[in-house]
């Protein structure tokens, strides 16, 4: 990792319409350096995906700011995205909904290549990116329905990385995959992002995978970050009761499993954030 900060999100607040409005994200801040993988973990509904959408410029935060390469991120609108912001790429949970079923996958990877060329980067070929993600280069002429779920996710990763991003936002990218491929796909993303000198925000509820690939981890609950620090520190010495409850629920390799101790409603209501562990 270098000293260059690719993402600096400050005091993000995301609200959704309702009566009263739903506060999905409440004052979240995070920074990601070039070559660094930062994980955002927490149970369903904790606000992880809302952070991802705000960081990527899909949703406009109600408060706070997102700086990408020191410049503000403008939310997507009806106009084409600013050329510089094509250096932010996103990989979604379900590749079946993010790939166009009517277009050959090689053409879709070429969209990423075109985004990189528009920023003045050297041209590449879809076959190069297929090879990098472990797919047969002869498959570039196929359509998405001719791939398995894991293969389609690799196509989606190839398309995102072909744009030569400075920041990859991966929102639960492995949760729809079978257990045998989850870790390998996550490790592939980490290695390719590091090779490109990019940063990655990796969003997951799977702490076992996060432990293997993330440099730092932020633990979210109820729209707030409860604990943050180097992944190894959080894994070995969790300080927040919510982090401890998440870790307690991870199955152990012998199949016996751990017995999670569910926090009471009163305990959850009393939770506050713990100051971050410094590297």
UniProtKB/TrEMBL annotation:
Residues 7-247 form the ABC transporter domain. Pfam families: ABC_tran, oligo_HPY. SUPFAM superfamilies: P-loop containing nucleoside triphosphate hydrolases (SSF52540). The keyword Nucleotide-binding applies. GO terms for biological process: peptide transport; transmembrane transport. GO terms for molecular function: ATP binding; ATP hydrolysis activity. InterPro entries: AAA+_ATPase, ABC_transp_ATP-bind, ABC_transporter-like_ATP-bd, ABC_transporter-like_CS, Oligopep_ABC_C, P-loop_NTPase. Keywords: ATP-binding, Nucleotide-binding, Transport. Belongs to the ABC transporter superfamily. This is ABC transporter ATP-binding protein. It comes from Labedella endophytica.
């Amino acid at each position: 990792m270098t000293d260059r900060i690719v993402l600096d999100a400050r005091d993000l607040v995301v609200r959704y319409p309702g009566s009263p409005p739903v506060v999905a994200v409440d004052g979240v801040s995070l920074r990601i350096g070039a070559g660094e993988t930062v994980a955002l973990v927490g149970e369903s509904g904790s606000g992880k995906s809302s952070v991802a959408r705000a960081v990527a410029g899909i949703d406009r935060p109600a408060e706070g700011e997102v700086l990408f390469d020191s410049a503000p991120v403008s939310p997507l609108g009806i106009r084409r995205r600013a050329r510089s912001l094509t250096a932010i790429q996103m990989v979604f949970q379900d590749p079946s909904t993010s790939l166009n079923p009517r277009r050959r996958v090689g053409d879709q990877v070429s969209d990423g290549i075109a985004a990189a060329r528009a920023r003045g980067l050297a041209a590449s070929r879809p076959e190069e990116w297929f090879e990098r993600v472990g797919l047969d280069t002869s498959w570039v002429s196929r359509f998405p329905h001719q791939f398995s779920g894991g293969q389609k996710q690799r196509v989606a990763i190839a398309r995102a990385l072909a744009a030569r991003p400075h920041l990859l936002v991966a929102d639960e990218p492995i949760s729809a995959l079978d257990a045998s491929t989850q870790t390998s796909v996550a490790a592939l993303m980490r290695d390719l992002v590091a090779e490109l000198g990019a940063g990655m925000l990796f969003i997951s509820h799977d702490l076992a995978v996060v432990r293997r690939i993330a440099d730092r981890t932020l633990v979210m609950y109820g729209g707030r970050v409860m604990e943050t620090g180097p992944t190894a520190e959080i894994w070995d010495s969790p300080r927040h009761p919510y982090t401890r409850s998440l870790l307690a629920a991870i199955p152990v390799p012998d199949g016996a499993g751990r017995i999670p101790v569910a926090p009471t409603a009163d305990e959850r209501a009393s939770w506050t954030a713990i100051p971050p562990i410094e590297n």
